[in-house]
């Protein structure tokens, strides 16, 4: 498995070993042992899956402590531009973001540590987005940042994004008091 330590400290991309043959392909979509060898330790308790049409944008979300979640995200069908924003108060890269294209045909996956807001834009119809979380869903702990905040400067690769009403009213970075 190829491991890429990205510039935002703690964000790690995994490209698993894929076994192709005349029938198709096989890969291990999760190995705690391989994650730990890469320095990623997580008490994975919940798996999520969402399906999105092209142009759907979900995010930027996080859960506040003590329900903060680290995530391991991948795309099982389609393509998505995955974006993480560093919201760790004392981080030298606070407010900076990283965008990684997740592609079902590349099998790549991204580890999003606690202390990051997370979102993605679906680049194809019927994009199946799968992710593991290190804590359970806790609605009262949900927080977020506005996906289109000029201060974040994120190029989502979309002309017209389909966004939930909830996401439209998330705070701008300037008005945000990070819990991390
Ligand atoms: C996240 C979540 C949601 N729900 C319910 C609550 C709503 O009735 C419905 C849709 O939730 P929401 O609109 O928050 O879903 P997304 O906008 O895809 O949210 C996710 O999008 C970004 C990309 C993330 O990283 C988060 O994991 C998550 O916030 O599913 C649950 O029952 N459990 C859950 O863990």
Automatic annotation (TrEMBL):
Membrane-crossing residue ranges in chain numbering: none
Record's keyword annotation contains Isomerase: yes
Active site per database record: 61 (proton acceptor), 131 (proton donor)
Natural source organism: Hymenobacter jejuensis
The protein's assembly and partners: Homodimer.
Cellular component GO terms, alphabetical: cytosol
Lineage: Bacteria, Pseudomonadati, Bacteroidota, Cytophagia, Cytophagales
GO biological process terms on file: dTDP-rhamnose biosynthetic process; polysaccharide biosynthetic process
Biochemical pathway: Carbohydrate biosynthesis; dTDP-L-rhamnose biosynthesis
Pfam families linked: dTDP_sugar_isom
GO molecular function, one term: dTDP-4-dehydrorhamnose 3,5-epimerase activity
Site positions per UniProt: Participates in a stacking interaction with the thymidine ring of dTDP-4-oxo-6-deoxyglucose: 137
UniProt catalytic activity: dTDP-4-dehydro-6-deoxy-alpha-D-glucose = dTDP-4-dehydro-beta-L-rhamnose
E.C. no: 5.1.3.13
PANTHER family: DTDP-6-DEOXY-D-GLUCOSE-3,5 EPIMERASE, THYMIDINE DIPHOSPHO-4-KETO-RHAMNOSE 3,5-EPIMERASE
Main function: Catalyzes the epimerization of the C3' and C5'positions of dTDP-6-deoxy-D-xylo-4-hexulose, forming dTDP-6-deoxy-L-lyxo-4-hexulose.
Protein name: dTDP-4-dehydrorhamnose 3,5-epimerase
Coiled-coil annotated residue ranges, if any: none
Family of the protein in this entry: Belongs to the dTDP-4-dehydrorhamnose 3,5-epimerase family.
Keywords from the UniProt entry: Isomerase
